[in-house]
TrEMBL record:
GO MF annotation terms: DNA binding; transposase activity
Highest taxon, organism lineage: Bacteria
Pfam family, one: DDE_Tnp_1
Transposase IS4-like domain mapped to chain residues: 1-83
GO BP annotations, alphabetical order: DNA transposition
Region (Disordered): 59-84
Ranges of compositional bias, category Basic and acidic residues: 59-74
Protein name, entry field: IS4/IS5 family transposase
Organism the protein comes from: Porphyromonas levii
Amino acid sequence: KFRYGYKKHVLTDGEGLVHTLTTTSANVSDTREFPTLIEKGALQKGVMVLADKGYTSKTNREHLSGHGLKDGIMRKATKGKPLS
């Protein structure tokens, strides 16, 4: 689906300092840009990576694990079932 515009994907530290910034067209899925942010961010092993549920995917969770990073990506609810 085509969307006019752009999206910014930003990797910051806990104090809000920007470490990585990428821009994509609006129709690019957040999940596809996640590995690029992690690679460019050069994070230390053991760091918790927090992300909204737009970045959730099995591949992204495995990417974090493969780089020794902690998974803090929000999870999406299954339709009709609460997250609790």
